[in-house]
Amino acid sequence: MVAAGTRWALLFFIIIPLLSFMVGSEKIIIRGASKVTEFIHGDGDGDGKRWAVLVAGSRGYDNYRHQADVCHAYQILKKGGLKDENIVVFMYDDIAFDVNNPRPGILINKPNGNDVYNGVPKDYTGDNCTVDNLFAVILGNKTALTGGSGKVVDSAPNDHIFIYYSDHGSAGVVGMPFGDDLYANDLIDVLKKKHHSKTYKSMVIYVEACESGSMFEGLLPSNLSIYAVTASNAVENSWGTYCPGHYPYPPPDYDTCLGDLFSISWMEDSDLHDLRKETLKKQYQVVRRRTAVDNFDRSHVMQYGDKKLSQNPVFVYMGTNPDNQNFTLTPQYYTSSSFSWSVVNQRDASLLHFWLKYHKAPRGSTEKAEAGKKLRDIISHTRHVDRSINQITKILFGDKKASQILTLIRPSSQPLVDDWSCLKMLVKAYEKRCGQLSWYGKKYTRAIANMCNAGVRVEQMIEASTQACMLYG
Asked: Any idea where the Legumain prodomain domain is (predicted)?
């Protein structure tokens, strides 16, 4: 019989090399508590991989904040342990080296913040930032891609997916940097297809945009294992922050907003905490409070879909930074009212940028003339859209009913419109005769949806748009 000591010696020499091989293959050395954390915050959570899709839906330096938001989100996920192969980034990538950027090749998401641009994958940039490519990425359909890195969410049944979007929006629609806008019904159809394919366990979606609640309200079922959080409800604006002339102030050489209030709220919360100890619900509560505190005119962060998922730790979707493992949550953090500061309506942020450019430019300079022209163009477009939409509504419904059509809001249990094809066709009919709608103009998407719900046909919209825009064109 082999002595007990000999048996243990044999086990030692057999098992330890095996463990060394297994552990070494994962590049993990178990040596103290910090290395155990390294294991815990790795790419998976013990139950599938983490995937992320990050989308900045705008272009142009006046929209700096959207790409800065997305780059910041990437840095959080990267520190949380996600691999680049599991993070898909959509951004036009025209900001970092824009001539207006005072720090070429660097993007910041808060005053005196660190560079968030460095290392961000350039998966889908420029004209490859399209709705079709976004849908193909979510569905894992490589054959449907046009350009880009070819990276898709090639997820499996036990995987977890995080989607974050930052841009302008209006009722039932958000933007993309190139090509068609992203309509709510099309997004929901894609999410249903993804669920039907049984290629994820759960999904979390964060959306920063005006009226972003309308992307899910009355549309997102609770049985898809998808939990969505939006910067505003279905009728409110969302807000830019860290804007020039608004506290907290960006560095003086920046004439554009550095971030969006909802976005920097969830990201600065994630930067700070051990996300294994914070649930999605806790983060939602913190962000909702920070976004609306002391100002009833601000937006109300909303949640949709499978709210049971809000009990999951944020870690399940974003991983966690091991440097935050000793952070302790306090009750004061969740009840503090110290978050109040000034913000700028998303739809006014571009106007602020060009006004500052005009104000700062030397008298008589080309720069001042160009900024002045841009300002006049924005103001002229605003007046044109206001007048033409009001006139179209009066032509279609008469003076008495027109104001009701312009302001009607459906109950929260109902989607924006019954016939989404009608909405898209009426918008195109208007744009063909009256000019493309800016994101200011798209605030009238709800009014156009109301026209569809009232039975207006495309032919009627064409005739009314032609009359109105001959008058105000």
From this structure: 373-469
Residue corresponding to tokens 């178990």: 30
Q: Does residue 35 carry a pLDDT above 50?
A: no
Residue 223 lies in a domain: yes
Three-state SS letters, 384-439: HHHHHHHHHHHHHHHHHHHHHHHHCCCCCCCCCCCCHHHHHHHHHHHHHHHCCCCC
Same domain, 292 and 367: no
For the domain that residue 150 is a member of, what is the CATH number? 3.40.50.1460
pTM comes to 0.89
Crossing angle for the helix pair 458-472 and 366-407, nearest 10 degrees?
140
441 inside domain: yes
Residue among 301, 375, 298 nearest 343 (CA): 298
* Mean pLDDT for the stretch of residues 71-100: 98
pLDDT tens track for 392-441: 999 999 999 999 999 999 998 899 999 999 999 999 999 999 999 998 99
Full domain range(s) for residue 373: 361-471
Higher pLDDT, 270 or 336: 270
The pLDDT value given to residue 293: 56
Say if residue 148 is in the same domain as residue 289: yes
Is 340 inside a domain boundary? no
Is-contact 386 432, C-beta < 8 A?
no
